[in-house]
């Protein structure tokens, strides 16, 4: 059970970084036809990402998790709201927001809300504030490469779009007045590759004797990608999925709904970590 809870915690952080709902109402192509095909819109969106050097975004995510079975089973919900600034080269990030956890099994307890703030710089490391003690912590350098790789891929919209390319013909193609809307409804083993890379990254530091992906079951995947008609910026990405994993004989079932909205592009040159944080951070020892 201890390993299972570590997986839950690391998965929550991984999917927060990866992901990282729209009120827009798409209209069918039959009533408002686009002059571009689905593949042309996709290719232009990927090409546009070559010119993105920085971005700001807001992110909302809800996770419902059932961990374990029998009398030890726990069911809870985590709601996250984040704002994020990212610079691509050199990779740097500032993330702030809050997470609230509630026991949805019916204990009657009020959700516990926890503020979050993180800085990351590929040359200086990864820093997270412990809000309970008001102390900044630095992750060990031995863990930083994995965190950097995961954050870079999560922030890189081009890479996220590239992961969708093998399934481009499975998308439906719609549009609003100002956006192309690409939607994917999927289930089964064929679509496992869409999220298995993120799951694998989140499990690397757990030290399991078995490959968790061997025990991964995808029940549902739902993607919506919004692409601006004028600029071909990817302005919003929704991702919902249901999955199950067996971890050392215990079952982890997770339902995740997330949306990341990009609010600005190419407006930042650097993200500077305050020197006071760098000088005084406590290195995590575990």
From TrEMBL:
Signal peptide range in chain numbering: 1-24
Record-linked Pfam families: DUF6612
Keywords: Signal
Source superkingdom: Bacteria
Protein name per Swiss-Prot or TrEMBL: Lipoprotein
Organism: Lysinibacillus piscis
